[in-house]
Design goal:
- By secondary structure, this protein is mainly alpha-helical.
- It is 70% helix and 0% strand.
Length: 141
């Protein structure tokens, strides 16, 4: 056999094997995808497509933003001397405790219950701040 014929046959065999491998590679493996798409961890109610944890990134981000805004609001109201230094320090401690609780809860994603607890504490701090602004106790030191 001549050299050009050998090269032609080798190229033909290579392209034939490639032509059979491409359709097999493009085949959809539905069974494997289903196994990971709809897993739900019953222990704590967290869900994530990758490993069964529940993570609402939008809700988690919204709660973090609300905590930050609450801290800024306390700073602004204290800067305007609408509340006493003692009241401001107490509110700052409460926000710091809330941040630590948020950090602990959000480590593996928030459950709905944890998100409700955090929202409740945020609302309580907002009400407490509003009360401290309106209490008119005359102590602004």
């Amino acid at each position: 056999m001549r050299t050009s014929t050998k090269i032609f046959l080798a190229a033909l065999a290579g392209s034939a094997s490639l032509a059979t491998a491409i359709p097999a590679q493009a085949q959809s493996y539905q069974q494997q995808r289903d196994r990971y798409d709809n897993r739900y961890d019953q222990r704590d109610g967290r869900y994530d497509q990758r490993d069964g944890r529940y993570d609402q990134r939008g809700q988690t981000h919204a709660i973090r933003t609300q905590i930050d805004q609450l801290a800024q609001r306390i700073q602004r109201i204290d800067g305007r001397d609408r509340i006493s230094e003692r009241e401001a320090a107490s509110l700052r401690r409460a926000v710091q405790n809330l941040r630590m609780q948020y950090r602990d809860y959000s480590r593996n994603g928030l459950t709905n219950r944890e998100a409700q607890i955090l929202q409740s504490r945020i609302q309580q701090l907002r009400q407490r701040l509003a009360y401290e602004r309106r209490d008119n106790d005359g102590r602004r030191w």
